[in-house]
Specification:
Keywords: Amino-acid biosynthesis, Glutamate biosynthesis, Oxidoreductase. It holds the Pfam family Fer4_20. This is Glutamate synthase subunit beta. The protein has 487 residues and is of the alpha/beta class. Helices cover 33% and strands 16% of the residues. The chain contains 19 helices and 16 strands. A five-stranded parallel β-sheet has the order 3-2-1-4-16, sandwiched between helices. Strands 6-14-7-8-9 form a five-stranded parallel β-sheet. Strands 10, 11, 12 and 13 form a four-stranded antiparallel β-sheet that branches. It is globular and about 65 Å long. The two termini are 31 Å apart.
Length: 487
C-alpha cells in the first residue's frame, strides 16, 4: 500500500483549471498542463489499506486501483503504467472523460473526500507516453483468422486491439471520415484533445490493426457481404439514434440534435472548416438536456461567442451531497455537477419542459416556450401559470439516445434480434443470434459510459476469440447483464 497515514496527512487536491477568460479564447484542454504531477504522489498516498477495495466494484474494468496508486506514490511510473494497462486499453480516455464511479465507491469516501483516482490515472498514462512506456504490442504469430469491427468508438477500438494482439487480422470499419466515433466528433477538444486518439491509432496500426474510414456497413457494404469476407464480426456501432422532441416548431431552422452541432465544431479543429457551418456566435443559445452532452454544447457555445447560453433540464435539481438513505455508499450518486463548461457561464434551469418553439417570418427559431413541471403521483405534470418564453436563436437537443441506427440496414441485413429495450440482443459470450457476429458497447448495452464501452469491447473480444479458436486467454471484465453499481 501507499503511505499508511496518507489519507490523514493530506487533503484532496485536483487538477488546476486555466482561467476562464483565457481558456475561452482557445479549444485546448481546460486544465493547466503539468499541474498534476507535483501533487499526484501525495494524492496517491491517500489510498488507504481498506481491506476490500470497493473501487474495483465501482469500475466495470476492474482496474487495479490500489496497486497503481501505490506505484504512483513511489513514482515507479513504469510499474504503474503496466498495472494500469493490465485492465484498460485507453486510460488517457477514461482519465479525461469518465465520471469516475470508482471514486464514488472509494472506501475513504464514506466520511472523507475520496481519493482522486481519475487524476492519478491520467497522470500515470501521460507520464507513460512521455517516457516511452507505451509501445506497440504486436502478436508473436498470426492465427489466420479475420475479424471485422464495425465502429471505431471506445468499444470498437478496445475489441480491435484485443483481437489484434491475440493474433487475428482485424479491420475496423468507420462510417465517418476519421477514426474515433463519438470520441472524435462528439467530445469537444477542450475536454480531450484529439492527439490522444491519434497516437493510440498509430500504436494500433503498428500492432497490425487496419482501419477503413468512410464506409457505412449496411449502406456502402451490405452486412451479408461483409460476413462472407470475414471469419467473425464485432458490431460496435453505438446507440446513435437520438431522442427527439416532437413539439410544435421542431421543424424551424436553428433547432438541431447535439450530434448535428458538436461534430461541426470538432471539424473546425481538424481543419475541415474555417468556421463551423452551425455556430452560436452572437446568438441566444438554449441547450435542452442536463447531462454531459448538454454540458459539451454549453462549452462549445461559449467558445463560439454566444450572446447567452441557457441549459434546460426536465428533472429537479440534484442535491449537492449524497443522500445516504436513497443513494447509499458505494453506489454512484446523482449529484449536482458543475463541469468546466458550467464554470464558464450560462444559466441552468431545472424542472421545466419545452411546450413549443416560435420562429420568425423566415422560419428561423426565435423563442422557446416552456413551463415548470412537478411530480404528481409519480408523473411529471405542468404547473399551471408557469408558462413563459425565453429567447432562442440556436437550440440543441441533448436528451440522450434511444438505440442503435436502424436506417442504414445493418440490423435488418444481418437479421439481428433485439432485446426488450431495442438494443441488439446477445448471449453470455456477447454473440448475437447470428453465429460469428458479436456486439459490444452501446449497440448492445444502450447508452452508457466510456468505461463500460471499453469493458464491453474487451469482453466481446474474448467471446469472439473463443469462437475463432475454441479457447481464449483474453480477459472479460464484465458480463452482458452486468449493470452500474446504482440504486
Amino acid at each position: 500500500m501507499a503511505d499508511p497515514k496518507g489519507f490523514l496527512n493530506h487533503g484532496r487536491e485536483v487538477a488546476r483549471s486555466r482561467p476562464v477568460d483565457v481558456r475561452l479564447k482557445d479549444w485546448n484542454e481546460v486544465y493547466v498542463p503539468g499541474s498534476l504531477l507535483p501533487i499526484i504522489s501525495k494524492q496517491a498516498s491517500r489510498c488507504m489499506d481498506c481491506g476490500i477495495p470497493f473501487c474495483h466494484n465501482g469500475c466495470p474494468l476492474g482496474n487495479l486501483i490500489p496497486e497503481w496508486n501505490d506505484y504512483a506514490y513511489r513514482e515507479d511510473w513504469t510499474a504503474a503504467s503496466e498495472r494500469l494497462h493490465a485492465t484498460n486499453n485507453f486510460p488517457e480516455f477514461t482519465g479525461r472523460l469518465c465520471p469516475a464511479p470508482c471514486e464514488s465507491a472509494c472506501v475513504l469516501g464514506i466520511n472523507q473526500p475520496a481519493v482522486t483516482i481519475k487524476n492519478v490515472e491520467v497522470s500515470i498514462i501521460d507520464k507513460a507516453w512521455e517516457t516511452g512506456d507505451v509501445a506497440p504490442q504486436a502478436p508473436e504469430r498470426l492465427s489466420g483468422k479475420t475479424v471485422a469491427v464495425i465502429g471505431s468508438g471506445p468499444a470498437g477500438l478496445a475489441a480491435a486491439q484485443q483481437l489484434t494482439r491475440a493474433g487475428h487480422t482485424v479491420a475496423v470499419y468507420e462510417r465517418a471520415d476519421r477514426i474515433g466515433g463519438l470520441l472524435r466528433y462528439g467530445i469537444p477538444e477542450f475536454k480531450m484533445e484529439k492527439r490522444h486518439i491519434n497516437r493510440r491509432i498509430e500504436q494500433m496500426r503498428a500492432e497490425g490493426t487496419r482501419f477503413r474510414t468512410g464506409i457505412e456497413i449496411g449502406h456502402d457494404i451490405r452486412a451479408t457481404d461483409l460476413k462472407k469476407r470475414y471469419d467473425a464480426i464485432v458490431i460496435a456501432a453505438g446507440a446513435t439514434t437520438a431522442r427527439d422532441l416532437p413539439v410544435p416548431g421542431r421543424e424551424l431552422k436553428g433547432v438541431y440534435q447535439a450530434m448535428e452541432y458538436l461534430p461541426l465544431a470538432n471539424k473546425v479543429q481538424e481543419g475541415d472548416y474555417v468556421t463551423a457551418p452551425v455556430s452560436a456566435e452572437g446568438k441566444h443559445v438554449v441547450v435542452i438536456g442536463g447531462g454531459d452532452t448538454g454540458a459539451d454544447c454549453v462549452g462549445t457555445a461559449h467558445r463560439q461567442g454566444a450572446a447567452s447560453v441557457t441549459q434546460l433540464e426536465i428533472m429537479p435539481r440534484p442535491g449537492d451531497e449524497r443522500n445516504a438513505a436513497s443513494q447509499p455508499w458505494p453506489t454512484f450518486p446523482m449529484l449536482y455537477k458543475v463541469t468546466s463548461a458550467h464554470e464558464e457561464g450560462g444559466e441552468r434551469v431545472y424542472s421545466v419542459s419545452t411546450t413549443h418553439f416560435e420562429g420568425d417570418e423566415d422560419g428561423n427559431v426565435q423563442w422557446l416556450h416552456l413551463t415548470e413541471v412537478e411530480f404528481i403521483e409519480g408523473r411529471l405534470t405542468p404547473k399551471p401559470g408557469t408558462e413563459r418564453k425565453i429567447p432562442a436563436q440556436l437550440v440543441t437537443l441533448a436528451m440522450g439516445f434511444t438505440g442503435t441506427d436502424r436506417e442504414n440496414g445493418l440490423v435488418d441485413q444481418f437479421g439481428l434480434d433485439l432485446d426488450e429495450r431495442g438494443n441488439i440482443a446477445r448471449d453470455a459470450d456477447f454473440q448475437t443470434n447470428i453465429p460469428g457476429v458479436f456486439v459490444a458497447g452501446d449497440a448492445g448495452r444502450g447508452q452508457s459510459l466510456i468505461v463500460w464501452a471499453i469493458a464491453e469491447g474487451r469482453s466481446a473480444a474474448r467471446g469472439c476469440d473463443r469462437f475463432l479458436t475454441g479457447a481464449s486467454d483474453l480477459p472479460a471484465p464484465i458480463r452482458p447483464t452486468d449493470r452500474s453499481l446504482m440504486v
